[in-house]
Amino acid sequence: MQNADIARRRDAAISRGVGMMTQIYADRALNAEVWDVEGNRYIDFAAGIAVVNTGHCHPKVMAAVTEQMGRFTHTCHQVMPYENYIRLAERLNDKVPGDFAKKTIFVTTGAEACENAIKIARIATGRNAVIAFGGGFHGRTFMGMSLTGKVEPYKKGFGAMMPDVFHVPFPMGPHGISTADAMKGMEKLFKADLDPARVAAIIFEPVQGEGGFYPAPADLIRAIRKICDDHGIVMIADEVQTGFARTGALFAMEGYGVAADLTTMAKGLAGGLPLAAVTGRADLMDAANPGGLGGTYAGNPLGIAAANAVLDVIEEEDLCTRANELGSRLKQKLEEIRATTPEIIDIRGPGFMVAVEFADPGTKAPDAGFTGRVRMEAQKRGLILLTCGVYGNVVRFLAPITIPEAHFTEALGILEQAVAAARQG
């Protein structure tokens, strides 16, 4: 079987609306390694977009799923509930930041989590309007698209977005946007277009994912918290990409000293199985009537079993500490590369949620072309990288936090070679 043959079949069978970063068709994977159908081996610095933080096929996760599969795969929790669903909710209620009583719901995707957080905020407050940030990404459903602060490719051609969704700028240091600019945008919104008494929620990512791995400054998070407190607005932290040890803490919001009212999560929660959640203040979470939240596959037993195992692995292997160590070493290597690479204008990110941004050394304009060459040169050498950013000029690094030392060192060497090759054109 050849990648090219499968690619032709894919083009004939799958909608072109489903984007493709590579034409590498996976056959098997283990921890940070993936082998394609032709037997080629790659080091995976994508991790399914921050999904397998605990590595491909972690033995503890696989064992938990296998054991659950032998019992049952589906009953629908709303019809016949199961204890491990409740146990996972209890664990998340305990671990999500916030010194208040919490409750949890489970759904299937990150977009669903964000959508349900908005539903909860609206029914709890009796308000409609929602504020999000430019560059943010919250999913591909209509509410998710509406919240997302990026037109191409997520909104283009899909018609009118959901009403009563507003955007303000998000701080991006390399592009001259500060917290003060974001707050001026909020003030202008409240003066010109939107009574804050109509706002149900403000939603943000502690580190923007698709938008370019820009960490939210602490003063921005504190300012959002104050606005929410002053006007009775629900503060929603979208931790879909930042959650589960990726930033050097179980949740990125742990580093800000304030807590969101609702937290959305998915991706790294269940080690590769589709599972998402909303955890938040119990009074808000109880605002919906029975049947208003949930879904047929929400909290699938296999995903629940995997998630309980993922939490065990993060604790037992101290993956938060490991993420900080790996991120520090990656940044050190990127700084070494920067010494001979004037295209690098920024290196950033907490824990092992690290990014490097490229711009033309002469014009200082974002350089998506150079960024793409780095990705492709790395891929030729067996390293899978992802790009992101409003301008497509950022490489984001999302390797499994469990990556073995030898593979991490090998990947850093390939990265250095790829950047050098990209510079040569």
TrEMBL record:
EC number(s) reported in the record: 2.6.1.19
Protein name as annotated: 4-aminobutyrate--2-oxoglutarate transaminase
Enzyme class: transferase
Entry-linked InterPro entries: 4NH2But_aminotransferase_bac, Aminotrans_3, Aminotrans_3_PPA_site, Class-III_PLP-dep_AT, PyrdxlP-dep_Trfase, PyrdxlP-dep_Trfase_major, PyrdxlP-dep_Trfase_small
Single Gene Ontology BP annotation: gamma-aminobutyric acid metabolic process
Family: Belongs to the class-III pyridoxal-phosphate-dependent aminotransferase family.
Needed co-factor(s): pyridoxal 5'-phosphate
GO molecular-function term, one example from the UniProt record: pyridoxal phosphate binding
Organism phylogeny: Bacteria, Pseudomonadati, Pseudomonadota, Alphaproteobacteria, Rhodobacterales
Keywords: Aminotransferase, Pyridoxal phosphate, Transferase
One Pfam short name: Aminotran_3
